[in-house]
Amino acid sequence: MPWYESFDSLIARNLPTLLVKKDEPMAGHTTFRIGGPARLMACPSSGTEAAALLRLLREADAPVELMGKGTNLLVADGGLDAVVVRLGEAISEAGLLPGDRVRAGAGISLAKWWKFFLKLFGIMWLVMMLFVAAAVIMKF
User: Fold this and answer.
1) What is the 3-state secondary structure (H, E, C) of the chain?
2) Angle 110-121/123-139 helices, nearest 10 degrees?
3) Which of 13, 97, 107, 114 could pair with 91 as two cysteines, CB 3.0-4.6 Å apart?
4) CA distance 99 to 94
5) What is the pTM for the complete model shown?
6) Interatomic CA distance for residues 21 and 40, integer angstroms
7) Across residues 117-138, what is the average pLDDT?
């Protein structure tokens, strides 16, 4: 029996609120607007739900592809015979951890990431980083 035939009942039992789409065209989820259907697309609504889903997928030995917001993602027209786990807005938080470490969710956008750093370090940090980036770019 193919992995996806038993997957519906597994999800219904363990993650009844998880949004799962079948044969979802990936073209609607990438910035390049290309790509065939994913066998299944799962859209967890929280980090906890995503972690539980990934545990289930590992136990079921199902093929998995993780996806953020679809930026710079190329998908073949033939699609994906896998569960695409879309880690979008629900997993897009950023925060400061003890020991001067930063935590960022897998679905965070670059704009939200920059806003977090601006709030944390101020505009001078951004100006310094832009000078460093410009120097690196001009070097190459």
Assistant:
1) CCHHHHHHHHHHHHCCCCEEEEEEEHHHHCCCCCCCEEEEEEECCCHHHHHHHHHHHHHHCCCEEEECCCCCCCCCCCCEEEEEEECCHHHCCEEEECCCEEEECCCCCHHHHHHHHHHHHCHHHHHHHHHHHHHHHHHC
2) 120
3) 107
4) 15
5) 0.77
6) 6
7) 81
* Paired tokens of 82: 């896998």
Which residue has 């880690």 as its token pair? 87
- Which candidate, 87, 36, 96, 48, places its Cα nearest to that of 65? 87
Q: Are 26 and 84 in contact (CB under 8 A)?
A: yes
Query: Using CA atoms, how far apart are residues 93 and 25, in angstroms rounded to an integer?
Result: 27
Q: Which two tokens stand for residue 67?
A: 């996806």
